[in-house]
Amino acid sequence: MDESLTLWGILLTLTALGLWLEHRFRWAARLGSSLIILMLAALCANLGLIPQQSPVYDTIYGTITSLAIVWLLLLVNLQDVRRLGRSALLAFALASLGILVGALLASVLFHSRFLEDTPRLAGSLAASYIGGSINFVGVGRALNLSDLLFSAATTADNLLTAIWLGTTLALPSVLSRFYPQAEVQEAATVTPLPTASAIAPLDLAILLSLAVAILVLATALHQFWPPIPTIVWLTTLSLALAQLKWMRYLRGTGALGMFGLNLFFTVIGAGTHVPSLMPLGLEMILFTTVIVFTHGLVTFSLGALLKLDVELIALASQAAVGGPTTAIAQATGRHQPQLMGVGITLGLVGYAIANYLGLALAQALRWIGLG
Known about the structure:
Strand content: under 5%
Pfam family, one: DUF819
Keywords: Membrane, Transmembrane, Transmembrane helix
Number of domains: 1
Protein name: DUF819 family protein
Structural class: mainly alpha
Radius of gyration: 20 Å
InterPro entries: DUF819 (IPR008537)
Shape: globular
């Protein structure tokens, strides 16, 4: 029997199981499919059911993950940003600044523990908290973040994201007296995201060919100009293509992207040696806690000084830390349905800028001697 084919079957099954659990059970939805799939793969690897190294993993880690990043970035319509008010963009800028300040502070505090991995970890987590998992994976790969740190950071990331959602749901009520009275805001209209329903073979063929073409071109550009990482070219080319109007009519973009991204976490899980992971747990949680709560302090403090609406600040914070999905949960939980479109758009803006900011932060940390 072909061992590679068997391994492919196991990894695909773990991915499907994680996605099904997230869809079926509330507790699994709180954990998120990425963390569940990572844990399942780690369990299988540490029980000896799957190898911890394989050429199959190289294919997923390299080609498939790059294609997934392209597909997810093709969802970003930058024209939606024009429909946002200046206050929403300012609030998200403060949220992004808060993440960068938090990552810098965490790097200073924990440099003695993570040493040369500090810029890799800070850059990857900053990209995650400004954008989302797509940026965490993209920047982490570009910076050569180890599987062990990937696993520990993913676990801590999911924990802090859940805690911060509860925090931002409560903060507007607690802090409202320090902020100006909110004005009635109009609902922002955004380009609807394509759904996975009725995916046509032609759509899949076009999406596959476009993603492969972008990956080939990005790789060639990196070889021509080595100082610029492949992920930067990949991000830039994908965002440029995403602005073409006919891209809106292709179905299955998000489904392909999320599938590839979740398959990536089987590789990270398989490469995780659980006994080695345990000592990192508390320190990684503290590292991410410093980032997120410093972000909160910066965002809400500067937001008050600039007299921004506290509901909008909380939404921008959640759009950064959790992404479009938790931004919707924030707007719904605060009974602010008119902010749902704003939250989605801000989350997508995060996807667009996080790779650049995460890589820039990592380089800056090296320049100041923290890596």
